[in-house]
Structure formats: structure tokens, C-alpha cells
Amino acid sequence: MTPRIRPDLATVPAYVPGKTFPGSVKLASNEVTFGPLPSVAAAIADAAASLNRYPDNGMVELTEALAKKLGVTPDNIQTGCGSVSLCQNLITITTTPGDEVLFGWRSFETYPLATRVAGATPVQIPLTGDHTYDLAAMAEAITERTRLIFVCNPNNPTGTIVTADDLVDFLDRVPPEIVVALDEAYIEYVQPSQAQSYDAIELHRRYPNLVVLRTFSKAYGLAGLRVGYAIADPTVIDGLRRVHVPFSVNTLAQAAAVACLAADDELLARTEAVVAERDRVTTCLRDLGYRVADSQANFVWIDLGADALDFAAASIDHGVVIRPFAGDGVRVTVTEAAETDVFLAFAENWARERRAGEHR
Ligand SMILES: *Cc1c(COP(=O)(O)O)cnc(C)c1O
């Protein structure tokens, strides 16, 4: 007899992380190129001295620092071992097997996987023609079984954002008992037009079913430490606390996150350079004839259709690792010119070879 494992798990694909090839430029996981600030590294080193002790399970210091920064109370905040664990825990607290979790597609790979791990049913609503979440279609797709809705804004992997009016119209249409998770992993990179401008903290007060998810992995550069947080009504936070795996946010993560918040200005100044670089990369790629979505994140989406896998494989030969999505497109992280220029040189080469091929 082999050990009995839930048979439905056999059909759940494993999460595929971005690849790393030693010596090549990695633009596959939306990381920043910089290591921690000296002040953050020092806080981590200090905290290392007490690693014989369990972490503070309530993450009191970090929770209070976040509450202060965001203008909410600590009972509006729950930290997690990366915001992916909060995505998983939101599914756990809202669904039972057979319930539906709704989200746009293509979007964050974790949503369908975590949904299926919970035994719930993913319902994927295609993006609009310009690769944006189709909130009107999502509102239409709500059923009796819908328990949770993810809105990824900016959307990973397309980088697009919805307008504030569309978001508010959507929240007005969602029945108040259905939880909406607004995943803002890339919020620090957003430079919204007036139409795209909204205040998620303010919205969560107006809509108690709205949960805002944020992370220290992206703009704050702590991807390796695993810490994210949810901002929500205390009823939702209470649910998240009940399923929190004890001590799953570690001591170093708390110390580093608190130090990052203290260095907010310095860290967020770095995002401006990335935003400028994103605009440059987008323009260069479009000039080369690529179809590139309007990104508000630290990556760009290139619509390549059937060429996606070939393009990504060829880029590895040129020393750049990007993230392909078969039959659809590629996502390329934007960091600094020294790295993105390697990618742009490859993209130029590929476009030239394509043109030569067509004219042969
Ligand atoms: C990276 C990312 C996250 C969170 O990552 P963690 O490292 O688990 O905090 C959440 N949502 C989206 C859309 C992401 O791209």
C-alpha cells in the first residue's frame, strides 16, 4: 500500500518559479537588483542574535509600524509569510470544496494553484483586449458559489491597471458577503493617471469585504525573507489569524520589514528609477515593432502569441532569463539599464532576424 494522498492533488501543477542561470541576467521574477540597505542589513544582523527564540507570533512591532504608516489600527492588519501565504489563507477562510474563486486571466499563477489546493474551483475571466482586468465581465460571472474574488492591480504578468471608476463600480456590484482581495504587490511602482487614481485604504473602509494585499518582496527588496500583509476589516483579519501557521513570519523578516519602513523614502526613491527605465524599455520595444502592454509595475508584458517559448529560449542563449507563458507572451522584469540593455539588444536582434526571415 502506498500512503494515501488526496487524489485530486495529482492533477494540480506545481508552481514554476523563475529560472536562475549562473552568470546570466535574471529578469524573470520581478526582483530588484539591489541588496538590502545598510540599515536593513544591520537590523537583520542584530535580530540574528536572538534566533534561539521563537518569533513574536503576533508580529506586534511590524503590525504597529504598518498601522501607523497606513493610518489604520493593528486589528486591520495581518502579516504573512509572503503575501502568497495570505492569498492561500484567504481561500482557506472563505471557501469549502466546490466553492468558486474568481479572478482575471492571465494573472498571478498562484491564484488557480492555491484555489485547487483548497479543493475550490477557479473561475478565470479573460482580460480585455488591452490585457486589463475585465471587471464588468467578472461582476457578471459571480454565482451562488462565488466566495472570493482576486483583483490583481497592477496585474501580474501584464502590468496593467484598472480605472478607479471601474473598480468602484465593481465593488458596488459585488454582494457584500463576498470577499474581494485587491492584490497590490506592485503598488509602489504605480504612477496613476487621474482616472486610475484611488486610495485602497479609504476603499477598505467603505467596503468591509475588501482586503488589500501588499508585500515587502518587490519594491522593498525583501523577496528572500518572505513577508507580506493584508489590510482589512477586523472580521476578515480575525479569520486570517485563525488559520495563520504559528511562527510562519520569522524574526529576521520582522526586523528587516520594520527597518525598511524606517527607510521608506530611500527605498521608494529607487522605484522612480525603475519607473523611468520601464518607460524607456516600453518605448524601445514598441519602436522595434513589439506589442507591449501599458505597464504600471516593475516589468513589461510582450504579447508574442505562439512565439513566446521560442523567444524566451533564445533570450537565454543571449544571457538573459525572462518568464515565458506558452502561446501567450513573456514577462520581462525592469531593473536598471545595465541589465535591460542586454535584453533590448537581444530583442533587437530577434526582431531583425524575424524581418529577414519574412523577406527571404
Ligand atoms: C510577487 C507577488 C506577490 C507576493 O509575493 P510574496 O513574495 O509572497 O509576498 C503577490 N501577488 C502578486 C501578483 C505578485 O506578483
Automatic annotation (TrEMBL):
Its EC number is 2.6.1.57. Its cofactor is pyridoxal 5'-phosphate. The keyword Iron-sulfur does not apply. One of its GO terms (biological process) is L-histidine biosynthetic process. The modification N6-(pyridoxal phosphate)lysine is found at K218. It catalyses: an aromatic L-alpha-amino acid + 2-oxoglutarate = an aromatic oxo-acid + L-glutamate. Homodimer. Belongs to the class-II pyridoxal-phosphate-dependent aminotransferase family. This is Aromatic amino acid aminotransferase. The lineage of its organism: Bacteria, Bacillati, Actinomycetota, Actinomycetes, Mycobacteriales.
